[in-house]
From TrEMBL:
Activator of the canonical Wnt signaling pathway by acting as a ligand for LGR4-6 receptors, which acts as a key regulator of angiogenesis. Upon binding to LGR4-6 (LGR4, LGR5 or LGR6), LGR4-6 associate with phosphorylated LRP6 and frizzled receptors that are activated by extracellular Wnt receptors, triggering the canonical Wnt signaling pathway to increase expression of target genes. Also regulates the canonical Wnt/beta-catenin-dependent pathway and non-canonical Wnt signaling by acting as an inhibitor of ZNRF3, an important regulator of the Wnt signaling pathway. Interacts with the extracellular domain of FZD8 and LRP6. It however does not form a ternary complex with FZD8 and LRP6. Interacts with WNT1. Binds heparin. Interacts with LGR4, LGR5 and LGR6. Residues 175-219 have a biased composition (Basic and acidic residues). Residues 169-243 are annotated as: Disordered. Residues 116-170 form the Spondin-like TSP1 domain. The lineage of its organism: Eukaryota, Metazoa, Chordata, Craniata, Vertebrata. Its main location: secreted. It comes from Ceyx cyanopectus (Indigo-banded kingfisher). It is found in: Secreted. Residues 11-110 form the R-spondin Fu-CRD domain. This is R-spondin-3. PANTHER family: NEUROHYPOPHYSIAL HORMONES, N-TERMINAL DOMAIN CONTAINING PROTEIN, R-SPONDIN-3. Belongs to the R-spondin family. GO terms for molecular function: heparin binding; signaling receptor binding.
Length: 243
């Protein structure tokens, strides 16, 4: 250590020297040696850099180096992330995963092998042939199931999700869609025709009544008014009455 020790340091150092950098750190900071060429200087950091782990002591907090295959570690013997080409398993970095485990190239970890899982079969569908359920005796019926757990890279593959089998049904004729549609169209036309006929009859009746009423009014206007017959009792003379 260079004898020129200063108390007025910067960058989190409690004590420092011009030659060795930080000699001690302020509370809660970690002391670590960094190599610059052939020289090492001390620095004080809030957390340890990659490849180091922190240890706390009453007098100083230090960053110690992880094992060579660890990228980050919790202690020297417990890795939390491995360097490229290694897989993490129980705090260790391995080149090959143990039996019963597989390498996950995405997380670079050894994980359990996951096998495919499928749900129960659905009930068999109605017996059909070419999309129809009538007009045949022999057809096919199907059932399906879903995949509830997809497998990992080394897991058992998924089974088929559908099955088909032959089926026999009591043969029945299919109702012709065109014939049924034609009957409905004829009924609709007939109903409209009856309604139109009733409407025409009502119109004719109203026209005839109006024509009769107008005829009577015209007759009343053209015929002369009838004179009232004289009262016989009033026309009798006094003589005739006396006689």
């Amino acid at each position: 250590v260079h004898p020129n020790v200063s108390q007025g340091c910067q960058g989190g150092c409690a004590t420092c020297s011009d030659y060795n950098g930080c000699l001690s750190c302020k509370p809660r900071l970690f002391f670590v040696l960094e190599r610059i060429g052939m020289k090492q200087i001390g620095v004080c950091l809030s957390s340890c850099p990659s490849g180091y782990y922190g240890t706390r002591y009453p007098d100083i907090n230090k960053c110690a180096k992880c094992k060579a295959d660890c990228d980050t570690c919790f202690t020297r013997n417990f890795c939390t992330k491995c360097k490229s080409g290694f897989y993490l398993y129980n705090g260790k970095c391995l080149e090959k995963c143990p039996d019963g485990l597989e390498a996950n190239n995405h997380t670079m970890e050894c994980t359990s092998i996951v096998h495919c899982e499928a749900s129960e079969w659905s009930p068999w569908s109605p017996c059909t042939k070419k999309g129809k359920t009538c007009g045949f005796k022999r057809g096919n019926e199907v059932r399906v199931r879903e995949i509830v757990q997809h497998p990992s890279a080394r897991g058992n593959p998924c089974p088929a999700t559908s099955e088909s089998r032959k089926c026999i049904v009591q043969r029945k004729r299919c109702q012709k869609e065109g014939k049924g549609k034609k009957n409905r169209e004829e009924k609709r036309k007939k109903s409209n025709k009856d309604e139109n006929k009733e409407t025409r009859q009502e119109s004719k009746g109203r026209a005839a009544r109006r024509q009769n009423r107008e005829q009577r009014e015209n007759n009343n206007k053209t015929q002369p008014k009838k004179r009232k017959a004289p009262n016989k009792e009033q026309d009798l003379s006094p003589v005739d009455t006396a006689h």
